[in-house]
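BUG-283 | component: ligand-complex export | severity: low

The export step for C2E jobs runs without errors, but we want the raw record kept on the ticket for reference. Input record follows.
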Amino acid sequence: RAKELGGRRVEVFAAHMHADVVRRLELAADLQRALLAEQFAVEYQPVVDLATSRVTAVEALVRWWSGGAFVPPQQFLGAAEDTGLIVPLGEWILREACREVAAWRASAWDIGLSLNLSSRQITAPRFVETVEAALAESGLPASALTLEVIEEMLVEDAEEVIARLSSLRALGVRLAIDDFGTGYASLALLRQLPVDMIKIDPSFVSGLGCDETLTLLTRTIVRLGHDLGLIVVAEGIERPEQLELLREMGCTRGQGYLVARPMAARGVDSLMRTNCTPLQNTA
Ligand code: C2E
Ligand code: MG
Ligand code: MG
Ligand code: MG
């Protein structure tokens, strides 16, 4: 009887697994087709200086409309990573975003680019060269590019990831820790990586003004970042009181739906005209 039950359980499990495998394979095939058909797009979410409300940078966010329906990045990035498609996709995003931000800078707006990476991209052969080539090709200065990393990237191949990011930083590229405060080793990461910026996770920002502990933690992270000489960006600002508290805490920069939603390049074009700091003409 026990054997019978066990057998059935294996069968149910196998059927379940089968459906899951098929779904993943279908998703992988869809992604491959989408990449070839150039169905991906990049949107840009403005990051503002909280003291002046000026846009200082944009964060590139990948977008996929599959058969007209929007698929959130978190629904396909896992499959893109597992299949290795994140490498050509990530390279396309890198080039596209460098090109567009370089064009905005060429119209004399002082704006930087923030780019999310996955560990598979960083450890891919010639990653450092790929970034160098994208910079050279677009004319974007290395100092205008910030690479965002999360703690989970250092779980595997930590030495390799750190070595590559350090090489890029030596070229002048900036490094940011994304989703700061949510991992187990956020503080340890600050010692392992030569970081320029931390991005406070929305789970802290969401509690500003309504949750005493989260407010206190946010204040502490802002102070910690400043004491370490880092740029501190608050993510997920949705309500005016969050913005007020962050300003009062002296947080340097902010990002969130209240400030601006992610938008297509055309949207940034019009924003630039009204909201950016002109590049200093040093000639
Ligand atoms: P992330 O890097 O932390 O990006 C911020 C996410 O929060 C974005 O979601 C953005 O649309 C969303 N967001 C911004 N402001 C607000 C707000 O006020 N409220 C709320 N509720 N959400 C806000 P998105 O675009 O869905 O991206 C999710 C994650 O997917 C990103 O988190 C990043 O980890 C990853 N991702 C996105 N684009 C790329 C990419 O090009 N390459 C890689 N490797 N990862 C990417
Ligand atoms: Mg990010
Ligand atoms: Mg984040
Ligand atoms: Mg995130």
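Assignee comment: Attached the raw record above. The chain has a mean pLDDT of 91.
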